[in-house]
């Protein structure tokens, strides 16, 4: 499983993402023996730091984000030894030459360059890489989200990076694609014969995809207030999940075959615009409330120095994939911050049996449902109607066939970034978004954002610790359905 030695350069190397996710993930891959000598990891940012100061900061980050047990032994020292640091000013010429010289002896290795900075630096960094001759045939550039804030800005980023590198060397990350259960969705669909025959409008009543978070904006208010839930979660993570549910079987588990199929789904999304935005979408913004017995502030109080904002922290909408397979099947999507619990799941709700032969004695027959839980407690549940045991006659109860990952598979579930970082080194683009996918997702999202702004309605308030505004309940109940709260 070990990967070949590589050099990884992380722009934004002292930032929040690097410290919270990237270095902890790299450390875990190193600890498990997947990273081989003489691989190097080079942090880059504008700050002037010595190598030792940088190592100290990373070591503190690891203390905060990996367990004491994982830090035991001599592996931590070995990892810190791989780290180097260079100050580079992306907008100017300072530091680039030194960075080039520092990795000049690694020409034959994979050179991964991770852009974990604000996207308005992507252009300057991409051109700096070219100008200072840092791009080799084995260079791969990883782009973090957000990839723009609308179609035009996404195209600008893609053009700028595309100027200096071919698409085959560009890795646009959506960390949801690295989550274990997300890949399991593909296993469920394409490694089993059971589901595919019923995976269509003849048998599926509707689909729900939910990403609920307990956290608020967590000091990221500056970014979040310019984004909102549609840009932050829907345009990328949730649409990617929708693609994996709705796509046709790719001819092979190969990057372009897979991405071609996802692209077709994105292009088949029914447009939401001025004509239907009011009935198909709901926006919300949290007010102060109580979560897990603790008071939490409202959105505006969390933003520094802002006393008015129409940014949505919750969005629910009804999407539709206009293909033969899915025509008429609603995809209800929702995501919000400061909801009562952190849970992400996909529900495939099947249709009612065509005829209940048990009469009223059996009671209500619930529709079968397949629930794929992404986090926490990863697992898959298939809800079936089962006869209640005992002599009481044919009475039914909805019971899940329950596959809990924790119970079935011992061992730790790797973080999405662990897998995705190693995929970059291995040169596997399957779980990364292609340019046309990102842009197709914006083609769907832009008219929604524009319609909202023309509508000029502020987001509906909801109390932190509740499941969002009541209009979100109405959105689905109008159709005679309900949001599924999985026990
Ligand atoms: C990020 C969003 O992409 O995903 C955050 O910018 C969000 O706002 C996060 O909190 C959720 O990721 P996860 O892996 O914690 O579900």
TrEMBL record:
Residues 9-184 form the Glucose-6-phosphate dehydrogenase NAD-binding domain. Signal peptide: none annotated. NADP(+) binds at residues 46, 145. GO terms for biological process: glucose metabolic process; pentose-phosphate shunt, oxidative branch. Residues 186-484 form the Glucose-6-phosphate dehydrogenase C-terminal domain. Belongs to the glucose-6-phosphate dehydrogenase family. This is Glucose-6-phosphate 1-dehydrogenase. It comes from Hansschlegelia beijingensis.
């Amino acid at each position: 499983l070990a990967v070949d030695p590589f050099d990884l350069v992380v722009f934004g190397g002292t930032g929040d993402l690097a410290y919270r996710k990237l270095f902890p993930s790299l450390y875990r891959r190193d600890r498990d023996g997947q990273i081989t000598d003489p691989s190097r990891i080079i942090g880059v940012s504008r700050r002037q730091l010595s190598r030792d100061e940088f190592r100290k900061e990373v070591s503190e980050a690891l203390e905060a984000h990996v367990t004491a047990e994982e830090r035991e032994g001599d592996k931590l020292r070995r990892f810190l030894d791989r780290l180097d640091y260079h100050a580079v000013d992306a907008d100017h010429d300072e530091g680039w030459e030194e960075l080039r010289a520092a990795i000049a002896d690694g020409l034959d290795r994979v050179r991964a360059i991770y852009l974990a900075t604000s996207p308005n630096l992507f252009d300057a960094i991409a051109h700096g890489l070219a100008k200072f001759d840092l791009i080799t045939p084995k260079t791969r550039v990883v782009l973090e989200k957000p990839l723009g804030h609308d179609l035009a800005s996404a195209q600008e980023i893609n053009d700028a990076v595309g100027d200096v590198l071919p698409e085959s060397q560009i890795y646009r990350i959506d960390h949801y694609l690295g989550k274990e259960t997300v890949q399991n969705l593909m296993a469920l669909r394409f490694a089993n014969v059971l589901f595919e025959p019923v995976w269509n409008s003849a048998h599926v009543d509707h689909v729900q995809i939910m990403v609920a978070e307990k956290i608020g904006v967590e000091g990221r208010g500056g970014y979040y207030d310019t984004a909102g839930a549609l840009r932050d979660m829907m345009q990328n993570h949730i649409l990617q999940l929708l693609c994996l549910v709705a796509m046709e079987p790719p001819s092979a588990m190969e990057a372009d075959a897979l991405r071609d199929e996802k692209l077709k789904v994105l292009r088949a999304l029914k447009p939401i615009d001025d004509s239907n935005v009011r009935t198909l979408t709901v926006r919300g913004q949290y007010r102060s409330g109580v979560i897990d017995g603790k008071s939490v502030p409202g959105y505006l109080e969390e933003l520094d120095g802002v006393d008015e904002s129409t940014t949505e922290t919750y969005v629910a909408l009804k999407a539709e994939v206009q293909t033969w397979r899915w025509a008429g099947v609603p995809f209800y999507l929702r995501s919000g911050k400061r909801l009562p619990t952190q849970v992400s799941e996909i529900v495939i709700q099947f249709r009612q049996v065509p005829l209940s032969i048990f009469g009223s004695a059996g009671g209500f027959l619930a529709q079968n449902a397949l629930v794929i839980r992404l986090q926490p407690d990863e697992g898959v549940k298939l809800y079936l109607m089962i006869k209640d045991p005992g002599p009481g006659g044919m009475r039914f109860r909805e019971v899940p066939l329950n596959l809990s990952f924790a119970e079935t598979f011992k061992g730790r579930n790797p973080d999405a970034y662990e897998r995705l970082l190693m995929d970059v080194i291995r040169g596997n683009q399957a779980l990364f978004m292609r340019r046309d996918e990102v842009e197709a997702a914006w083609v769907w999202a832009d008219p929604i954002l524009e319609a909202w702004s023309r509508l000029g309605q502020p987001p509906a308030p909801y109390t932190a610790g509740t499941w969002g505004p009541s209009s979100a309940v109405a959105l689905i109940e109008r159709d005679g359905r309900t949001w599924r709260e999985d026990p």
